[in-house]
Amino acid sequence: MAEKLVAVKGMNDIAPPQSAHWEWLEDTLRALMARYGYRNLRTPIVEPTALFVRGLGEVTDIVEKEMYSFEDKLNGEHLTLRPENTAGVVRAALESNMLYEGPKRLYYMGPMFRHERPQRGRYRQFHQFGAEALGFAGPDVDAELIVLASDLWAQLGLTGIELEINSLGQPAERLAHRQALIAYLEAHADQLDEDARRRLHSNPLRILDTKNPAMQALVNAAPRLMDHLGAESLAHFERLKALLDAHGIAYRVNPRLVRGMDYYNLSVFEFVTTQLGSQGTVCAGGRYDGLFEQIGGKPTPAVGWALGMERILELLKEQGRLPDAPVPDAYAVVPDAADLPRVMPLLRALRAAGARVQMHAGGPDGMGSMKSQFKKADASGARWALIFGADELAQGHVALKPLRGERDAAPSQAAMPLSDAQAIAARVRAH
């Protein structure tokens, strides 16, 4: 016997009934994006490795440790399975000259890949949904994206999600803060852990986001980026806060919120929860006005966010907000396989009329007993059984037998003409 093959660790199948929850969430997101005027963009899963090295930063955790990169055997190109999609969106916008006719509001969804230790809500293949607004410079669109995400939580019925915001200012302001931060940390080098010492001169801002409890007092007393911001950066942040206040959206200014990619500037934000353990961030983003220039374009303002689909579904499950998986309206019970040429066209007509109908499928020895068919009809979750017995078909009828709530109100089965597919479909679809 051949060795049994299984999926790569951290890359999971999504099968029924869980896949129905994914479809429901995806449909909810698409509808919300349409109401805000965001349109779908689909980019390749594989991109040039240089896109992420230049876009995310060479010393980020993603580029240093987590990317699935390889050399194409045919032409020697260095390629990477996308670990995130903002850089890909910007690459696509530049390559197609997408902003020639003006700014664009876009959204995407799909799998991303990072080589990290699988844990709750965090996988090597994971799925992101993202919203990106390209070509907009003002804080009004920053606020719009935050309001959009807040509307999503309300529509999904999720509670306990809190918003944290911060400003990273502009590059020159970050440089002044960086120099002050390095000097402060060097003066307390004996308190730094191994990871902080490694990042001290390459990416000291990320040290502020440490989860090491022993370093919290040190980090809390570190120089604050907010104290190095100029008038324009502060004004942008104040206008953002005023717009959030106008919407009644609660937030907390978190001066340690820095995000994990180098391309961010000005507004950054995260939606967090305490209900998913250490993986508490469910949606995060910010402004990245310098990313276009980093990957070969002209300076272009842009802002966006991404959410983890697995984490949202996990939170929906935690809060009991997942809908029931869809079930058939009716299950067709067909005692004699010889009647299928007459039955199957009617079932097709019922589906065309909007009814969800599942047909019992037989085997080489026939369709099976009525008892076994009714057992499968009940297990399907269908509300009605459509019985195509010899007597019913001889009279040009199908018998409708209630399997769920109608059972007590109408215990006996009713007959309906085979010729009236619309009426049958309306009956089985009615609640």
From TrEMBL:
SUPFAM superfamilies: Class II aaRS ABD-related, Class II aaRS and biotin synthetases. This is Histidine--tRNA ligase. One of its GO terms (molecular function) is histidine-tRNA ligase activity. The lineage of its organism: Bacteria, Pseudomonadati, Pseudomonadota, Betaproteobacteria, Burkholderiales. L-histidine binds at residues 84-86, 114, 128, 132, 259, 263-264. The gene is hisS. It is an enzyme of class 6 (ligase). It is found in: Cytoplasm. Keywords: Aminoacyl-tRNA synthetase, ATP-binding, Cytoplasm, Ligase, Nucleotide-binding, Protein biosynthesis. CDD domains: HisRS-like_core (cd00773).
